[in-house]
Amino acid sequence: MLAETRPAVSGTALPSPPPLLTAATASLLRTVQVLAAAALAADLVVVAAAVLWRFAFRDSLEWADEVARMLLTVVAFLGGAAAVAHGQHVGIRIVRDAVPERARRLLEAGGLIVEFGVSAALAACAVSYAATAATQVTPFGLPQNLFIYPVVMGGACMAAFIAARLAACRAPDVAGAALGLALLAGGVWGWSAALPGLAPSPLALLILGFALALGSGIPIAFSLSAGALIFLTADGSIDLAVFSQQASSGIDNFVLLAIPFFVLTGLAMEVNGMSVRLIELLRRAIGERRGGLGIVTILAMVLFSGISGSKLADVTAVGTVTIPAMRRSNQDPADGVALLAASAVMAETIPPCINLIILGYVANLSIGGLFAAGILPAVLMAAALILGVVVFSARAKPAPVERSHHSLRHLLWSGAVSLGVIVIIFGGYRSGFATATEIGAFAVVYALVVGLLCFRELDGRALVALFVRSATLAGMILFVVAASQTVAFSLTIDQVPHALAEAMIALSHGGGAWIFLLVSIALLIVMGAALEGAPALIIFGPLLLPVAQGFGIAPLHYGIVLIIAMGLGLFAPPLGLGLYTSCAVGGVSLESTVRPIGKYLLLLFGCLVLIAFVPEITLALPRGLGFVK
């Protein structure tokens, strides 16, 4: 299973439910996981069948899109609930882990209370939303509430899992945390009532609530949701049912089905042995040379980012093989984790990275164009990292090449079979046979068939576990997307996009596009560190792209710049959430990676500046493939 990223490396263990609740919680979790995994499997069948039907009969299954989107909602909210039970939602725990034990327990209890409140509000608002949509049907006759009931179920199950965890906390800690939250809310209400002219605006309360929640260690998805709920409550003119409506509509798009499909593909390659064989083949090809394991790490991230699309899956698949190998060869594992994190930044623009899909969705950009635009920047950054590894390892002792029982002939054959996934992804999209989402479905089918028939490392039990694990990880990612949409809606209501556009234009006055690009890079690095990648792109992508076009910057070029800048922040110490994941996978402390990752991030920042000011690096391939005129 993927490392539980919420506690990070140095965090205290999450509380466990009391024994009396353990059986009930475990039973509910099994039910939730089975339903989420079944929905993912059904989605796979529906999408693959729709493509084959279209290819065979030159006709479309018109109902398939709606059914697939409805099943995606089930995966998002029930998978997100399973991630809550496993503690896999990502949060920044620096403050919580640094305070004395008593304060840490209070923050833990207070965070759980907030998470419970958000989950319960999600379910309650969804019930209210369902009541207003009870007589509505979709264009093809499905009840509209089929898209809302999963939100109700997901919110209720999240609340149940969090309540069980709260029951494990000490009663004085829960009471103290509840009193502190009540005093905080009462103070804000009293201030607004006593001094209405000086009362904080709903937007100010959103920002303050989000900052306090995130800083105290509450996972990013719940921090975003809490901020949106505070905004809607303070505004008072908007029905709270909008909260669940926006959360649901945030993922109600066929394009986002690519996320669980590519996650499933990457995890299937890990389970069926494809990833291990590919990395061993790379290790033998590089040979026993200085920096060899580092070069293998970079090249492996290039390959896996082009398959799974998920940074969590990529870092886990590569790091669980290369970091132990570094330990066995007496190399510094902290440097290996730093390089792993930097390679993940490099891989942000390698298709089919999920952030490319999300940005294309929220900013209405061609996903195929973004895929093409990201390749040459990734090549440039990979080359820079490899050169850096060679230089930095000039005095290091070469690591010996470890060999398994597999022959070179077997590794070459299995490597060729494994790379068939990449052929399917790029060949299918370029040929026009299917969309990115539909190609993801066929990549899953290929990976499963290879695991079952060729490598024979994927049996029935492992297959079920694979779908459960994939639904949980995909649900965690999609729930962040849903939560981000609630904040994006709140910002739009408050006309923040217009204000931000004017501020960016004012900052760039006199310097034009150059200054605007530098300001954008700085903004996304900071927001990438404070937020997980998806929220940063969902909130700022649609806001900044129209401004960039006003400066004459090509949308595809600007989108790639945003994604790389966001990736730098995501993996930069001390707040970068992606760096926490890398440290958890490598089993090293965050503090030990700060110095080694600095040199790699500096290299990548230099590449980013070059990419930003030489648009042809991003636009050459899209132009050659017809995405840019």
Report on this model:
There is one protein chain. Helix 2 packs across helix 20. Helices cover 76% and strands 0% of the residues. The longest helix has 39 residues, at 19-57. The chain contains 27 helices and no strands. The radius of gyration is 24 Å and the shape is globular. Mean pLDDT is 85; it is low at 1-13. It has 629 residues and is mainly α. It has two domains: 19-251, no CATH class; 256-624, no CATH class.
Q: How many structural domains can be distinguished in the coordinates? A: 2
- What proportion strand? under 5%
* Mean of pLDDT: 85
Please give the radius of gyration in angstroms. Answer: 24 Å
Poorly predicted segments: 1-13
Along the chain, the helix and strand elements come as: HHHHHHHHHHHHHHHHHHHHHHHHHHH
Let me know the largest β-sheet: none
Number of beta-strand segments = 0
Number of helices: 27
Q: What is the multimeric organization of the chains shown? A: single chain
Judged by helices, strands and strand pairing, the structural class is: mainly alpha
Give the termini separation. Answer: 45 Å
Features:
mainly alpha, 629 residues
